[in-house]
Amino acid sequence: MAALQAVHVCDVPNLDQVPENAALALCYSRFRAGVNGEETCKCKISKFLVMGHRGSGMNMLQSSDPRMKSIKENSLLSFNEAAKFPIDFVEFDVQVTKDDYPVIYHDNFILHEQNGAIVENRLTELTLAEFLSHGPQKVPGTMGKPLFRRLKDGRIFEWKVEKDAPLCTLEEAFQNVDRSLGFNIELKFDDLVVYTEDELSRILKAILKVVFEHAKGRGVVFSSFQPDAARLIRKLQSTYPVYFLTNGGSEIYTDVRRNSLDAAIKLCLDNGLHGIVSEVKAVFRNPGAVARIKESKLSLITYGQLNNVPEVVYMQYLMGIEGVIVDLVKEISETISDVTRVEEGEEDSLYGDNGKTQAKAKPQFSSDELSFLMKLIPELMVQP
């Protein structure tokens, strides 16, 4: 097994760059998901999952790291690039257009330039045709309205990446993405909008229609930061697992269900959800919550820029966290080795009592390396 290669805090100044030689042998075991004939949730999960964030990684246009501007996020190109590596899922954001088509896009607003000025439109107020008119078009060599992006701090960047790609629909993803990949479908809603039950139901039913018509055995997981969307998607179907997304209190919302890991546990238990996807910093700030989540028979997966540091991922494996959502798909997936091998037919069932996993090997680290791991994470957490 490869020895631990240290990633010093000074080498990761903004957490949007990770050294190319960052390496750590981690556990990896392929995840397979499916549904049974009775359309009840039945997903088998190994000890550790890797999911590609928005495909092969999100775009950070302000980053000096070229890997964060390599391939257009949330595109068919990005999803299929991620499939080249030993990962289990791609995570992506789904919204529904004004004419009820589920499309894959992260931001609430689409920005383009027209007559020298930036024009901003809410995605859900556009038709499918209007949405697809932005960026590269499906006809090779043709370009629609040039896309821009507004950051949280207000800065606007032209959306330039090394390998650009057209915007796409959820149906196109099911039809054109490598079938080895499961889909973690984030149900995307605007935090500043108050949604009625009827509005949520209309949106979720449009998404479910596409999933049921086109999934054809592909592993699918739903997740959402919107508590009522998570609750309702669970009520509307029992085929696919539903996870509640939370930043665990990093930001405070008027909806108290969003403000802590314990509130997330309660929401899941009250509504029959299957697990939590938490910002990784929240887990390290409140490690006792991991035990409470497991005692509640819920699964725990994490997201966040810290997941691009292999040592941080390894610590989560040791803590019993089931998986991570990462941007640096190549780097993280390639540092994962078969620490845990699962015998055929003995995968651990996340939503049942049958099956068991058998550890075949354990990573070997010196006391100095383990000490480094324990010191690294608190230091990284204070980074902006």
Per-chain topology:
Elements lengths: L25 E2 L5 E3 L5 E3 L5 E5 L22 H7 L6 E8 L5 E3 L4 E6 L2 E6 L5 H5 L14 E4 L5 E3 L9 E2 H7 L5 E6 L9 H18 L5 E5 L2 H10 L5 E5 L14 H11 L3 E5 H6 L2 H8 L3 E5 L6 H10 L3 E4 L2 H6 L1 E2 L29 H15 L3
Parallel strand pairs: 1-18, 4-5, 4-17, 5-12, 12-13, 13-14, 14-15, 15-16, 16-17
Antiparallel strand pairs: 2-3, 5-6, 6-11, 7-8, 7-9, 9-10
Helix pairs in contact: 3-4, 4-5
Model description:
There is one protein chain. With 384 residues, this protein is α/β, with parallel strands linked by helices. The chain has an 8-stranded parallel beta barrel, surrounded by 5 helices. The longest helix is centred in the middle third of the chain and has 18 residues.
* Overall spatial form: globular
Q: Helix count?
A: 11
The total beta strand count reads: 18
User: H/E series, N to C?
Assistant: EEEEHEEEEHEEEHEHEHEHEHHEHEHEH
The biggest beta sheet, please? 8 strands, parallel, barrel
Structural class: alpha/beta
Radius of gyration: 20 Å
Q: Report the mean per-residue pLDDT as an integer.
A: 82
**Percent of residues in β-strands:** 15-25%
Protein name: glycerophosphodiester phosphodiesterase
Pfam families: GDPD (PF03009)
Catalytic activity: a sn-glycero-3-phosphodiester + H2O = an alcohol + sn-glycerol 3-phosphate + H(+)
Keywords: Glycerol metabolism, Hydrolase
